Amino acid sequence: MYVPRPCKVFIRDWQTNVQFFRNSTVLPSATYWGQYEEITKYNADLNVAERMWAAWYAWMQNDVLATGIMSFVMHELVYFGRSLPWIFIDSLGFFKGYKIQSSKIPSLREQWDCAKFVLLSHFTVELPQIWLFHPMAQFCGLQTSIPFPSPWTMAYQIAIFFVMEDTWHYFSHRALHWGPLYKAIHKIHHQYSAPFGLAAEYASPIEVMILGFGTVGCPILWCAFTGDLHILTMYIWIVLRLFQAIDAHSGYEFPWSLHHFLPFWAGADHHDLHHEKFIGNYSSSFRWWDYLLDTEYTPDALKRRRENKAGAKKAQ
Ligand SMILES: [Zn+2]
Ligand SMILES: [Zn+2]
Asked: ∠ CA 63-64-70 to the nearest 5 degrees?
């Protein structure tokens, strides 16, 4: 028989949420949905997502495990889930006219080999790091409490993370193209001169750590300075960043691609050329660093450079 007992972990983790405890006498239930029902009974003001979130932590009774499992499963679902449409598009030949390097369509075999490598890296390199995430997040003051922050707070923080990560990515990626570092670390990622969605995380474990610091470290730095960041905001940011990385590697450029509406957005058009030419276009999300530091590699930038050179020669 299941005997309810007070949930210690739950109390510790949610203690900052005064309103929650004022109304609540939640005891652990044998099932996740039992826990959800308990929370619903005493917290009518919470929305469904907040109740599910609270029920998950209460049911797990182990915060490190709860955050670790949630982070790892989310990463796998989003990474492979977002890559799947690109696998179909490549193998069924949809949108052939929009393929950037149209003669280099990856075979299913190539994509499968890439997926195996990425999975191995996720389970051996990323999983242990994801397990450290909760203790690190708590140490840095990330909130796990409910209610969630407002959509506006999440939106402006995510916009800041995009800018911070892009800056980190530009300089560290550019450094990785320096001869010795390229040979030792970054060469693996450039195995595919015509990239595809799944190849976004096809990289050396050292590269995953260096570039991954931009994705995980920037929000943590933000939290260390402002003391204001919820883990959910971090999750939404990571999901959007995964979408950005996978789409940038997709190899397809559409008339409806985001950079046609936001000219400073990088997109596939920008990163595909980086893989094809091995030079320039070092940024991840935006075009401004490549533009400012003259490392842009696009037909327009090449034309501009030629004109500048010709102008300089005439002036001599
Ligand atoms: Zn590169
Ligand atoms: Zn790449």
From this structure: 85
Count structural domains, the chain: 2
**Residue 20 belongs to domain spanning:** 8-60
Per-residue pLDDT of the chain (316 residues; tens, 9 = 90+): 333 333 333 333 443 443 343 334 455 567 888 889 888 888 888 889 999 999 998 888 888 888 888 889 999 999 999 999 999 998 888 888 898 887 888 888 888 999 999 999 888 888 887 778 888 887 888 888 888 999 999 999 999 999 999 999 999 999 999 999 999 999 999 998 888 988 999 999 899 889 988 998 899 989 888 988 999 999 999 999 999 999 999 999 999 899 889 999 998 989 999 998 888 899 999 999 999 998 988 777 778 878 777 777 777 6
Separation of CA 178 and ligand 1 centre (Å): 10
Hey, what's the torsion of the CAs at 259, 261, 262, 268, to 10 degrees? Answer: -10
Classify residue 172: in a domain, yes or no. yes
Widest Cα–Cα separation across the chain: 92
CA of 233 to the centre of ligand 1 (A): 28
One domain, residues 134 and 251:
yes
Residue 114 lies in a domain: no
DSSP 106: P
Cβ distance 316 to 288 under 8 Å? no
pTM score of the predicted model: 0.84
Looking at the fold, whether 37 and 83 belong to one and the same domain comes out as no
The answer to whether residues 133 and 22 belong to one domain is: no
Centroid of ligand 1 to alpha carbon of 299 (angstroms): 19
Whether residues 153 and 241 share a domain: the answer is yes
How many angstroms is it from 177 CA to the middle of ligand 1? 6
Q: Verify that 267 and 246 share a domain, yes or no.
A: yes
Measure 298 CA to ligand 1 centroid, in angstroms.
Answer: 15
User: Which ligand has the shortest distance to the CA of 192?
Assistant: 2
Contacts of 230 (CB under 8 A, 6+ apart): 142, 143, 144, 145, 148, 149, 154
